[in-house]
Amino acid sequence: MATRERPQSRSLGDRAYDILFHNALWRSIFRSGYPNTPRNQMLVVATNVFLHLHPTRIHRTHVKITHTYCLGGLSFFLFLGLTISGVLLMFYYVPSVERAYEDILRLETDVRFGILMRNMHRWMAHGMVIMVLMHMMRVFYTGAYKPPREFNWVVGVVLLVLTLLLSFTGYLLPWDQLAFWAITVGTNMVGSAPILGEPNRFALIGGYEVGPSALIRFYTLHVIALPLLAATFMAVHFWRIRRDGGLARPL
Amino acid sequence: MVSATQEQAASQAVRGRAKRQRDEELLVWPDLVFIEFIAAVLFTITIFSLSVAINAPLLDRANPTVTPNPAKAPWYFLNLQELLLHMHPALAGVIVPTVALIALGAIPYFDRSNEGQGEWLSTPRAWPLTILGATVGIVGTTLLILWDGSKHVVLWAKLTGHDVSDWPTKLNWLRSSRSLQTEVNWPDSWRHVPLGSKVLRTDLLGLPKINLNVDIPAMVVEQIIPVSMMVGLPILLSLFAWKIGLARTRRDHMILQFSGFIAVYVLMTIVGTAFRGQGMELFYPWQIKPPVS
Prior knowledge:
- The complex is a heterodimer of chains A (251) and B (293).
- Chain A is an all-alpha fold and 251 residues long.
- Chain A has helices at 12-21, 24-29, 38-47, 65-68, 71-90, 100-109, 114-141, 150-171, 177-191, 197-205, 212-243, and one strand at 57-59.
- Chain B has a domain at 70-178 and 219-287.
């Protein structure tokens, strides 16, 4: 007796999938299908603006955690987290000598999850300094600065400086004794440079000692100027990783 | 005819290599994106738990008239503040960090070889070089810090059962780096060498006169000794490693110097953070009291 293959009736899941993902609205947002085939998996990386920082394929050894420990990626992740928590903190903070300290106190006592927001911003800032330094060590000890990646190492050194400056400018904002004297000590070091030291210090803190103009300058640098600069250099950094052929590999 | 066959063979080899390389590759989605996602989740949980457990510090309102003792910079600048205790402020605060950053950025232009790429410490002798550089950095810096903190006097007093004040006056110049300036009988004229009126005669060119007096003993202590330590010791280290055949290539020297630099950097950060108490004196971490105003 000959058996005849009959097409299986489509399950409820299949039909729900079609309704959700095979319609004009979904397709207008996501051009590729669900990433369950190699073709779609490559398309989803190549056509998504966030994922296209990656190549579509990567060498087997680069996926090993111990090759990079994700240090650079985690630095970037912390930068994003700092941006989000920083924007939330900006809602409650006014950079004036009269209000700054009181705003932090109010943030800690009156704002729901205010203290959590502040803590997360602070620990992520410390974490980013550590991650960036460790990322630099990783790149050095894996010899990943060698040609053609020389200039990207220089960009990385600039990003290290920007990270330290971001953290340093944020340190003053709570306007407590810790902040005030740390910045006084730090800017005095700048002022001790021969010839250019004193003018630089004056430009940085807008006066001869840390005061209202220092607070507004550090705030502006911290929330606008330095993040934009850092983001620009990060864009160059990531772009060049791709242009230089991805992560370094043994020859 | 022959060249055609050769070409064919070559292209087959190229194709073979390309094919093998393809086989070694993974798709970024899901293999890499998944790892990144897990790393991000783990990190979010860590940061979240840390933030719930430990509150960010908030002291009293800023008061310019009350100086806390000690007044410390943020922890990542405490290495520079540590340098500040031992040398001229211009050197510690600006010149050393600037030179260090430029040297750091110049590494790939100095070491242009391609060996040892993409693998952890994969050049021959990389591990011994790392360990040598780090050990010399840590031991050397510790000894220098202890000497400048007069800890050898304390050690001598403990070993011989004397008091610290019993240190022979003849050896007073060995108490610390600074005592070279204060305890040695320098000729008085050396303390005020008028460069402005004797050497740099800018007034002869019609420019404003420079009023520059050089204090040679102070210069020795604040500039000449620190610079010769910071430049000389790394050079000696490189020479030593080269002589015993450990450092042969530029990459070897870079590993040696970078490891030493990182070790010194971390050590000075730790000393500045945990071992400096009131008056920026050396203490054990458990002896340090909170800053007093």
